Amino acid sequence: MNALAATNRNFQLAARILGLDSKLHKSLLIPFREIKVECTVPRDDGSFVSYIGFRIQHDTARGPMKGGIRYHPEVDPDEVNALAQLMTWKTAVANLPYGGAKGGIGCNPRELTVSELQRVTRVFTQKIHDLIGIHRDVPAPDMGTNSQTMAWILDEYSKFHGYSPAVVTGKPIELGGSLGREAATGLGVVFATEFLLDEYGMSFANMKFAIQGFGNVGSWAASFIHQKGGKVVAVSDITGAVKNPNGIDIPALLKHKEKADSLKDFEGGDAMDLNDVLVHECDVLIPCALGGVLNKENAADVKAKFIIEAANHPTDPEADEILSRKGVTILPDIYANSGGVTVSYFEWVQNIQGFMWEEEKVNYELKRYMKRAFNDIKAMCHTHNCNLRMGAFTLGVNKVARATVLRGWEA
Predict the structure, then answer these.
(1) 102 counts as catalytic
(2) Which residues, other chains included, contact 212 with Cβ-Cβ below 8 Å and sequence gap of 6+?
(3) Is 344 annotated as a binding residue?
(4) Cα(77)–Cα(170) distance, rounded to whole angstroms?
(5) Domain span at residue 188?
(6) Record keywords: rRNA processing included (predicted)?
(7) Of 89, 95, 141, 406, whose CB count within 10 A is highest?
(8) Residue 168 carries which DSSP code?
C-alpha cells in the first residue's frame, strides 16, 4: 500500500471514530493548493537539464503551512500529497500553530555538483516564492536536502521580499538557525520512548534496542539511548549492519562511520544482513529510514515488544494488524518523530522575535511539548478505546476539524 493510501486509510478510521460530518470529512482530505513547476537549469558542462518540482499545501486552518522539501528521483505527487497531509495531523498532535505542506524535486542530488544543486534550488524558489512565506508556508530540509539548501532558499526568497529568516527552518546557525535543531528529531524520539516505557514501569537501563537507519535521526537517537544506559544491540543503514548482544559502543561506531563512511568492518560487533535488523532480538525496534519497511512479509517475525516509528510511515496497515495481534505496542510516526517540526517551530518563533534561545531552553521546551502531546494522545485513547495510532490520528484530525469549523468554512 502506498503512502497516500495508508495515510487516507488512517484518516478515514479516525474520521469514523470522531463521527465527522461527511462534507467536512471531504474538505479536510482535499489539499488547499497543489503546485507543479518546471525547473530548467544549466549543467556545469553547459548542457541544460529539466526537473519537475512540487509543493503540496494541504491545510491552513490552524496557521501557516509547514513541511520539508526533498530531492529524490522518485518524488511524485502521490507521495508528496501523503506527506503534506501527514504534516497537517502531526503539527496538530504536537499542538503547533501550523498546517501541513510538503515539496520536492524529482532529481538525484548525488548526481549533481554543489553549483548545480544551488541553481536548481534557486530556480525552484523563483517559481514558488510568491506562494511560500513567513505566515503562508515555511519549508524545511528533508531527504536529499540540508541546511545549505535552506540557506539558498532564504537568500533567493529575500531578493524578492527582503531579508526573511523565518521563511525556512533548519537553516545554518549563522543565518538564524536554532541550536538543537540537528539533534531534535532523534532527541524527540528518545523523549517519546521514555514516556512510553514509563507507562509500563520500564526505563532505558537494560533494555535492548535495534535501530534501522543510521542517518541524522538514527545516529542521534542511538547516541541518546546509549547515554541513558540502553543497549543498542543492532544498527543498520544502506552501507551495512552491525550487531552485538552486549550492546554496541555507539560513540566508537559514530567515529568509525565518520572515518569509513560506512558501517562495514566495524570491529565492535559482527556484520549481519541489512533486513535482519527489523526482526532482530530486542525489546524496542526503532525504524528511522524509509517508509513501508515493516510489511506483511516480515511483521510476523518481529521480536520487539515496542516499535517507535522514527521514520514516516514505516509500518504498512497489513503489518499494523499483524503486530497488534502479536501484542506489539506501536508509537506512531505522527507523534514519535515530531521533535524535528517542534524545534522548527521554535526556530520560526526565534526568527520572528529576533531573540535566540540557548540549547538548554530548546531541549527543555521540546521535552515539555512532547510530554503534553503524549498525555493528549493517551486521553484520546481512553476516550475512544483505541490504540496509540488512532489516539494520535483522532487527536490531530479533531483539532484541525475544530479549527476549520470555528473559522466558518461553510460560509
Answers:
(1) yes
(2) 218, 236, 277, 278, 285, 286, 287, 288, 289, 293
(3) yes
(4) 23
(5) 183-331
(6) no
(7) 89
(8) -
